[in-house]
Write a structure and sequence with these properties.
The chain contains eleven helices and 15 strands. It is α/β, with parallel strands linked by helices. The chain has two domains: about 35-170 and about 305-330 and about 355-370, Response regulator (Rossmann fold), CATH 3.40.50.2300; about 170-300, Rossmann fold. The longest helix has 27 residues, at about 1-30. The N and C termini lie far apart (about 65 Å).
Length: about 375
């Protein structure tokens, strides 16, 4: 009996040690440590506010495997966003830190995007970047990434969870800026405006819409706002704008979240009125504004924020302190647009300005971007 008791005792001790080791491993991979700032490269990784917390992961030896899980590709912004991400990953001084850069676009299916991120985590990627189809649906993914020691980052349409790194411009503020421009340029009171929105359910659309209407309401003036969905795509925006005008819409101003040159073309083709327009940073929109001497504001989120997110991921993997919320500068310009700076007549209408983030030492030539594809790899 005594040997059996000893064996049982040793087995119990072994089980306790194994459990302790497993718990210790889980604790080490339970996500980033929350630390005091300041963080690394504060000019680039600018905290969202004075209350922003800082993350720090244990340093890993590179090069790293990094994945980008995009949602839909309904417009050229998403294509260019992927192209500049690939271009950045291929630049000298960056590519040495990247063993593999994987991109997948899943469409508007939220479940498919969640599955794609989970697959990247299961495959052992060091960092996963997400442009989320839904801000509230990724809580389980964030938890899984942190338990696995994977750095999870979201940008543009950010994941609404305080345990992932969020990188974005002030999307609501862009709606406010659009409204401020139209409030300045439109004298009619009451006035009728056309708002060409993005895809239904997209967080960026909701934020810009909210900012736009809040600013209008605060003005104290009366506005009748007709809303149509242009999906941030020039063809869709042109059609819904043309339909709204054909239905008897005589508008005093137009706000287009994306696909701006499509809406401008529809307005000019209708020949009923020419009014101030606030649009995105599409090159084609700015060219039309210059050519037709329109009153325009053009602001948005540069596609190269994907590159800032890659830079952030590498810094986090190297053990640097990173703000949980990183605020990118808002890009906005007004007509007339300066050639070679704000507008590029030699480039395609679908080209988006805002590909350089000087504070992050991130910039691209048109040739670098054109050499990449927006496809999955």
């Amino acid at each position: 009996m005594k040997p059996t008791s000893q064996l049982r005792r040793f087995a119990s001790i072994g089980a306790i040690l194994a459990a302790a080791f497993a718990f210790s491993t889980m604790a080490q991979a339970a996500g980033p440590e929350i630390v005091a700032g300041p963080g690394a490269d504060p000019d680039c990784f600018k905290p969202g506010s004075a209350d922003t917390k800082y993350f720090q992961w244990p340093a890993k030896k590179g090069p790293y495997r990094i994945a980008l899980a995009n949602g839909f590709i309904a417009n050229d912004w998403r294509v260019q966003m992927i192209r500049v991400a690939k271009a950045y990953a291929d630049q000298p001084g960056v590519k040495e830190d990247i063993k593999e850069f994987k991109v997948i676009s899943v469409g508007e299916d939220i479940a498919a995007q969640i599955a794609a991120v989970n697959n990247f985590i299961d495959q052992g990627f060091d960092a996963v970047i997400v442009n989320a189809n839904n801000t509230a649906a990724f809580g389980g993914v964030v938890k899984k990434a942190n338990e696995a020691g994977v750095v999870l980052l979201s940008f543009d349409n950010v994941i609404d969870d305080p345990m992932n790194i969020q990188i974005n411009v002030d999307q609501k503020g862009l709606g406010v800026l659009a409204a401020d421009f139209l409030l300045k340029e439109v004298s009619a009171d009451p006035a009728k405006l056309l708002e060409v929105r993005g895809p239904a359910g997209q967080p960026v659309d909701a934020a810009r819409h909210e900012g736009f209407h809040e600013a209008l309401a605060k003005s104290g003036r009366k506005f009748d706002v007709v809303e149509v969905v242009g999906n941030w795509a020039p063809g869709d925006a042109q059609k819904v704008t043309a339909d709204a005008i054909a239905a008897g819409g005589n508008f005093d101003g137009i706000y287009v979240q994306g696909g701006s040159h499509g809406s401008a073309t529809a307005m000019l083709d209708a020949g009923k009125f020419v009014v101030p327009m606030s649009g995105e940073t599409e090159n084609g929109f700015r060219m039309i504004c210059n050519e037709k001497d329109l009153k325009c504001s053009s602001g948005g989120t540069g596609p190269a924020q994907s590159s800032v997110t890659i830079k952030t991921a590498i810094a986090a993997l190297k053990g640097e302190k990173i703000p949980q919320v990183i605020a990118l500068p808002t890009s906005i310009s007004y007509s007339k647009f300066k050639e070679g700076v704000d507008v590029f007549p030699a480039l395609a209408a679908s080209f988006f300005a805002g590909n350089n983030f000087e504070a992050c030492n991130i910039g691209f030539t048109a040739e670098e971007i054109a050499a990449q594809s927006g496809d999955n790899n």
